[in-house]
Amino acid sequence: MVCLENPLVQKVCNLYEKISSLESLKPSKDVDMLLTHLVATCTPPNPIDVTKLCTRIQEIRANLIKLCGEAEGHLESHFSSILGSFEKPLDHLSLFPYYNNYLNLSQLEFNSLSKHCPNLPTKVAFVGSGPLPLTSILLASFHLTSTYFHNYDVDPSANSMASKLVASDPDLLKRMVFHTTNIMDVTDELKEFDVVFLAALVGIDREEKVRVIDHLAKYMAPGATLVVRSAHGARAFLYPVVDPCDLQGFEVLSVFHPTDDVINSVVIARKHPTLQPIQCLQQPLLSPL
């Protein structure tokens, strides 16, 4: 049982105490400093297994992921507003502090997808696109340049901000659609998509994440591809972990755990023609490079 005697866990818990005591998680000097420190602590490859954490640390981890998710939402809204003030917002995307991370993550996801989908998708859904839909924008701009993207988010203000970013680009304006709805209310429409991306913070706890995945398994087209963001090692203090056995109704094709500055692991799965249970795997299908 991994608990406070682990130096990494000790450092994460100390940061959690400071982050949770902040009055606001909107961008500020203190918020930026603490979250930068937390990311720097959790990013280096670490063999820690978060499933073996003691109950107290599991609770802290769950709360920390929620706090990080809230802070990330504020950060994206803040920079989406800044970018939206430019005549051509897409020319200034690099102002976002994690732009390079998203650039590398979208490249990784495209590469992983290409290995299993030789034909480029014509229609993609991104679930949990938020106010700054960088993945959709980057994939549409550099990798899937004729694909149509349908972005789903429950927050109307997020979709309003996101729409403003692509409004000045005639090509993306034509190929980007924003839907303000809960993905759990989207049913037969899901059958239209060749690929569905599931954002890391859609379903912060495992039960909610599994409910979303089960819903996608029920309504996605047989043979369609699901791209899921997960986390591995110490990075699981920042984002939820998706285990292959959580993907009932899908065939897990690959799991990739980056060891560089890209935080999220990438899971590629294919919808079964019929729902089939899969076995939990003790080891990832694809080892980190």
TrEMBL record:
Known EC number: 2.5.1.43
Top EC group: transferase
GO BP: nicotianamine biosynthetic process
Reaction catalysis annotation: 3 S-adenosyl-L-methionine = nicotianamine + 3 S-methyl-5'-thioadenosine + 3 H(+)
Gene3D superfamilies in the record: Vaccinia Virus protein VP39 (3.40.50.150)
SUPFAM superfamilies: S-adenosyl-L-methionine-dependent methyltransferases (SSF53335)
Transmembrane feature ranges: none
Annotated coiled-coil segments of the chain: none
Keywords (A to Z) from UniProt: S-adenosyl-L-methionine, Transferase
Cited InterPro entries: Nicotian_synth, SAM-dependent_MTases_sf
GO terms, molecular function: nicotianamine synthase activity
Entries under Pfam families matching the protein: NAS
Name by which UniProt lists this protein: Nicotianamine synthase
